[in-house]
Amino acid sequence: MNATAVLQADHVDLVRDGQAILQEVSLTVRPGEHWALLGANGAGKSSLLSLLGALAHPTRGTVQVLGHELGRVDMRQLRSYVGHVDPRHALRSPLKVQDVVLTGLTNTIERVPRWSPTAEQVATADRLIALLGLSDRHGARWPTLSQGERGRTLIARALMPSPRLLLLDEPATGLDVAGREQLIERIDTLQHTYPELASVLVTHHLEELPPGTTHVLLLRDGRALASGPVDEVLTSDQVSKCFDHPIRLTRADGRWSVRTNRPARP
Ligand SMILES: Nc1ncnc2c1ncn2[C@@H]1O[C@H](COP(=O)(O)OP(=O)(O)OP(=O)(O)O)[C@@H](O)[C@H]1O
């Protein structure tokens, strides 16, 4: 593995029920890099993220997460070093925000009976709650949180064990425009606060890309269409091919927007 890489996938294939979901996908993520996995519905983004988060094994090829090759290490232990933010977080108890964030230390969804955090761990949780803009919701209970507040709580939770890698699976799905903007602002803040942290964010909306995105992998039908620094990969031409639609891509103040590229009217 590349000595400095946080993640390295080499020629990865993933087959499920006889169907090729990923083919020949390679990706190297280094500290401080912020990758976006972009592609249409069904392109294979979440499947790739599940390999990077040590939730599944590749059918062929190798995946190394934090220097450990999947298949040769205890996947459960490896998972505890990766901050994985899954919007389908199945919490049933009405835990307070602070308690939800603290479950990041036990890597469990519910609170572990008879486990209690140290004063230092509680202070870390409070610092992360503030970083994610949730100080005024500190004591609020999970069922009363808005979807945006839940998403930011889960990012704070994922950061509790000081991971070197943060995986974000469609973090802005279902958010209104204010919720989306607050999320992007907080992701921007945390990227500046932890300059060594690497991240991989899955989305199909280019408007949701944080301005700190450094690299992009465009996936189409399970294959990498293009991969590399954001300015080289995010072109109207390549994004049009990725989504199989004529797209005009523009960037302003570090953010992207897309329109259908219609021929000019005579
Ligand atoms: N366990 C599985 N068995 C069979 N097919 C699967 C399985 N998991 C995913 N697939 C298929 O693999 C393809 C890629 O799915 P995946 O969820 O990775 O795509 P995605 O790019 O994340 O899509 P979306 O943007 O809609 O979330 C889809 O066609 C999906 O139906």
Automatic annotation (TrEMBL):
GO terms of molecular function: ATP binding; ATP hydrolysis activity
Organism lineage string: Bacteria, Bacillati, Actinomycetota, Actinomycetes, Kitasatosporales
SUPFAM superfamilies linked: P-loop containing nucleoside triphosphate hydrolases
Domain ABC transporter span(s) in chain numbering: 7-246
Alphabetical list of Pfam families matching this protein: ABC_tran
Gene3D superfamilies in UniProt: P-loop containing nucleotide triphosphate hydrolases (3.40.50.300)
Sorted UniProt keywords: ATP-binding, Nucleotide-binding
Protein name per its UniProtKB record: ATP-binding cassette domain-containing protein
